[in-house]
Amino acid sequence: MALTLARGARIVAATHNPGKAKELAALLEGRFQVVSAGELNLPEPDETETTFVGNAVLKARAAADRSGLIALADDSGMSVTALGGSPGIYSARWAGPGKDFAVAMDRVRERLEETGFEDLHAWFSCALAVAWPNGGPVVAVEGRVDGTLTFPPRGTRGFGYDPIFIPEGGTQTFGEMEPAAKDAISHRARAFAQLKAALFD
Ligand code: IMP
Fold first, then answer.
1. Looking at per-residue confidence, does 5 or 90 come out higher?
2. Atom of ligand 1 nearest to the CA of 99
3. What is the rounded CA–CA span in Å between residue 15 and residue 146?
4. Which domains does the chain have, with CATH numbers?
5. Cβ(177)–Cβ(155) below 8 Å
6. Hey, which of 161, 164, 176, 192 would you mutate to test ligand 1's pocket, going by the most ligand atoms within 8 Å of its Cβ?
């Protein structure tokens, strides 16, 4: 039997961040009843995998098995070609304990300076994983958007590394773009489109 996520299903968003749970719920278009791992007091697993998909699967698996519900998890970040894919899965961690992305963006600039700014290509990735409880199946997808880095950072919209990233074919950074314009082409939107095609009834 094909795996599908039926409308109205109760699913757990494997995040302890209320903002992210809301964002995931919005992307799911009100199709499901979404509760967050934080609300269910589920423990937060360490992200010990080496890929976005690996970490999304780990988080979805843990939440599904603990809650007995179908779980959705995401993992995302920015990878820089000239830095061998860094910060990648460490994107959030580069901002330090204060979660200061001015610091993280400056770290990217400093590291690129060491390479002579020859290659400014970067990409955002978003992995989404859905896991069924009791050791059931897992489905994972990954979306990506490629672009070019620019310094200094520009724009006050968005979050994280948005102010230094210009998507392919554009002139504005994600930090300058209308949120709807970013949402139309983002790694997250692309991952969701794949998930919908694979699982929604
Ligand atoms: P996660 O919450 O562990 O998936 O960490 C994702 C991190 O990657 C965030 O803290 C951001 O720094 C970065 N990131 C992911 N998606 C975006 C985006 O759309 N714009 C800017 N930064 C992003």
1. 90
2. 10
3. 26
4. 10-199 (3.90.950.10)
5. yes
6. 161
